[in-house]
Amino acid sequence: MLSLKIDAATRMDRSFLGINVQYIDMEKQKIILKTLALKEIFVRHTAENLKQIVAEVLDSYKIKRQQIYTFTTDNGMRCAAHTLQLAVEDALNKDETANALISKARSVVNVLRTPTYTVLLKREKLRKPVIDVVTRWHSKMSMFSTIRNENKNTVMYQPSDQEDITSETEDVDDTLELLLKKYDKEKGKQ
Predict the structure, then answer these.
(1) Cα separation of 163 and 158, whole Å?
(2) What is the domain count for the chain?
(3) Cβ(19)–Cβ(36) below 8 Å
(4) Residue 164 above 80 pLDDT?
(5) Band of the pLDDT at 93, cuts 50, 70, 90?
(6) Do 86 and 18 share a structural domain?
(7) How far is CA 145 from CA 11, 121, 139, 140, in A?
(8) What is the rounded distance in angstroms from the CA atom of residue 148 to the CA atom of residue 49?
(9) Same domain flag for 59 and 123
(10) 71: three-class secondary structure by DSSP
């Protein structure tokens, strides 16, 4: 009995399909995990195309379909969380106020992540601020949280030779409050 684990990823405009097999070595009483293939995908990521690639890999190892006990995937290329993330990204990209806020927040975070501020953050026992990543769920809110909560006071310890970011931090705070009020107002209409 074999268990297949399959996942696809796209990085830097290249797509790959990884295929692993897991089984129990009865002699050693040990679970074995082996990579069967890491195939670059040059076709659309349809179910039929992915099925064909998997079938070719299984055939190359002479694995029969009857030997497969489980087949684990991440629910395809567009799982619900990823689709929601893309929808949120699209909505934010269309809102000029949100774009301006995100840009200012990134500026503040980039300054706070410099070596000079990293030393200050460690001295104050504060975490380095999180910067948002487009593919990471909830990373923008994490970025805003670290600016508003943990790192707001760090700006007060700003070294004299560093760029003044106090006003930008206040702008981010004010704009975030405005966006949250706008959201609550829109939510109330529904």
Answers:
(1) 8
(2) 2
(3) yes
(4) no
(5) confident
(6) no
(7) 28, 15, 10, 9
(8) 47
(9) no
(10) strand
Same domain, residue pair 58 and 125: no
> Within its chain, how far is the Cα of 47 from the centroid?
24
pLDDT bracket for residue 156 (50, 70, 90): very low
- Residue partners of 161: CB distance under 8 A and separation at least 6: 116
Do 169 and 87 belong to one domain? yes
Using one digit for the tens of pLDDT, what is the confidence trace for 10-23? 777 888 889 999 99
Single-letter code of the amino acid located at 112: L
3-state SS class at 89: helix
Copy the structure tokens of residue 178. 């405005």
Per-residue DSSP letter, 73? -
Specify whether 110 is located in the same domain as 129.
Answer: yes
Residue range(s) defining the domain that contains residue 88: 81-189
pLDDT of residue 81: 56
102 conformational bin, left if phi > 0, alpha if psi -120 to 50, beta if neither:
alpha
Q: How confident is the model over 106-135, as a mean pLDDT?
A: 80
Task: Please tell me whether residues 160 and 105 are part of one structural domain.
Answer: yes
